[in-house]
Amino acid sequence: MPLLRVPLSRRPKISPTLQGILSLLRLLPQVSRTKTVLGLSGVLAAAVLPVGVAVVAGLLIGSIRATLDAGLASPAGHRTLTLLAVAGVLVMAQQTFSPVLAMLGETLGREVDRELQQRVMAAVGRPEGTAHLTDPEVLDALRVVRGLGMTETDRPSQAVAALAAVLPAWLRAVAAALALLAFHWWVGLLWLLTWPVVVHFMQREYFRVGEVGQGRGGALRHAEYLRDLVLTRGAAKEVRLWGLLDWLLGRFDGAWREATEPVWRERRPRVRVVLGATGSVALVNLVSYAALAWAAVHHDIGLGWVAVYTQALALANNYTAFDDNNAYLSFAGAAVPRVLGLDAHLEASVTARPAGPPAELPAAFPAGRIALEQVRFRYPGTEREALRGVDLTIEAGRSLAIVGENGAGKSSLVKLVCGLHVPTAGTIRVDGHNLAGLDQAAWRERIGVLFQDFARYHLSAAENIAMGAPRYAGDRERLREAAHRAGALPLIEGLADGWDTVLSPEYTGGTDLSGGQWQRIALARALFAVDAGARVLILDEPTAALDVRAEAEIYDRFLELTAGLTTILISHRFSTVRRAERIVVLEDGAVVEDGGHEELLARRGRYAEMFDLQAARFVEPRQGSAAGAGLRAAAEAGHA
Ligand SMILES: Nc1ncnc2c1ncn2[C@@H]1O[C@H](COP(=O)(O)OP(=O)(O)OP(=O)(O)O)[C@@H](O)[C@H]1O
């Protein structure tokens, strides 16, 4: 069933370019009537003035002979002088109009950007359902909207294109100025000096504006985030359920203005600079043309040379400084070094690893234990420690479960073991080696991991699992085995295109999976890494989204799945946790209890307290008053 009444890709009756221009012209007055009227007048002036200059210049040249014959005081002489004055005024007007028009166009363009985003947000947020958010045609159109904004002008590609347009014009103008040296050395020199100064000032202005724009990056990202809440699937259900569209439209409008208006304001006073620059150029033009007319009238040069120098003057005016290309050059000038400097910036923020070459890993690594020694960890930019002196030995080939309340530091601990962060103090040793000194890529090949917030790749089912060990991506038998062990095989074989089905409804023929189905795929990915040689298996909430039967299946086979592996399991489900050979309780970043399931229950500490709390949920209310041991018995009977 088509999701849109009008297909987005329908063939227009008129040419697509014309259609685009017409719809843009219709949109402009809706954005700003005043600026549209001013802009159109400017366009007319910009079109008519050069023609006027050409006509007057022709008349001027034509009048010279009569003036030569009759003298400057004659009516013919007066006519020549009047034409000269008109030419000067027209050239000046031309020089003044074009930058003002360019600025007007840019301001209107930004307003069109905002208007388009709001219209698209309203259009995308309005349908009751969310199916259109996976329609490839809609998504293709949304890509265009995402490209809108100030970042557009930061693109180095724009600067490269601008360079290609600006450099030849500059070179032509220099050549023309050199030619003018032959007419009068001071006229040539005037051009050679005036333009670089004007270009310098204008580039300084544009650069500053570019810097201001990039300084607003955070505010702009926030506005874009609000926009994308409407344009993407992530929050689509809640946006509809709670009727957030109007609120988001309002927030976006405010955030967008807050992000962009300071840049516009910064640009406004610069009209003074622009007028100063264009005024200087107009003056140089006036002086040059006057000198040329004077020379012609006084027979200093012949008509042929008058024509040559007129052309040279026109070319000298090609030495652009005011148009969009000049602006793009400077905007990217502010952006490119920032992007290129990213490497160095990130280098400085990388936590130092022990000096010397990383240790080579033997094939059967790790054969021994993973030991955390007084490990402390604080996330960059935060004050609070997520781990506060953890001492923990994880025996090779055994399973360890980590439990604890939200925020206790469980996920942080496994991220450290994965080598994704380096402890701020203390050491993690694997087979006696400092983990920080190992070849990190090789170490990660030894780990199969299912993160709590695992990735859902918009790729085929086969690729989604193969991500666990991409070097074996083509090994279908191995993929089948991993999928089978994770209980994902029937699911994959039931998909329309089987293993080749893209797991995203955003692509033609693609499909989405339920939360639990996704979790099986992610588990298969971790087990695929194990098949490929990983000896450490990390499972962070592996069954959180699974139904009761699937969870029971997984924990029934937990010992089989983890046999021979060093396993770290994080879970809030005690039915799964109790299967682990050893359990530690993490509280506020430190280990507070350590032992087997029965041992910890008998200790009547934090573990027993948490276990009892969960067990109580599985018994009838009338049994709620029973003693903890009774509750546990009931719960264990239901779960074992
Ligand atoms: N990327 C991060 N940046 C800053 N602080 C973080 C980051 N991730 C986690 N924290 C903080 O570190 C602490 C430990 O978080 P962690 O995710 O390890 O807890 P957890 O025990 O896994 O919790 P849960 O059971 O909710 O998954 C928390 O206070 C959390 O706010």
Automatic annotation (TrEMBL):
Residues passing through the membrane, by range: 43-68, 80-104, 173-198, 273-297
SUPFAM superfamilies per the UniProt record, alphabetical: ABC transporter transmembrane region, P-loop containing nucleoside triphosphate hydrolases
Cellular location(s): Cell membrane
GO molecular function, one term: ATP binding
Organism: Kitasatospora cinereorecta
Protein name in UniProt: ABC transporter ATP-binding protein
Record keywords: ATP-binding, Membrane, Nucleotide-binding, Transmembrane, Transmembrane helix
InterPro entries registered for this protein in UniProt: AAA+_ATPase (IPR003593), ABC1_TM_sf (IPR036640), ABC_transporter-like_ATP-bd (IPR003439), ABC_transporter-like_CS (IPR017871), P-loop_NTPase (IPR027417), Type_1_exporter (IPR039421)
Pfam family, one: ABC_tran
Membrane-related topology note: Multi-pass membrane protein
PANTHER family cross-referenced by the UniProt entry: ATP-BINDING CASSETTE SUB-FAMILY B, ATP-BINDING CASSETTE SUB-FAMILY B MEMBER 6
Gene3D superfamilies (UniProt xref): ABC transporter type 1, transmembrane domain, P-loop containing nucleotide triphosphate hydrolases
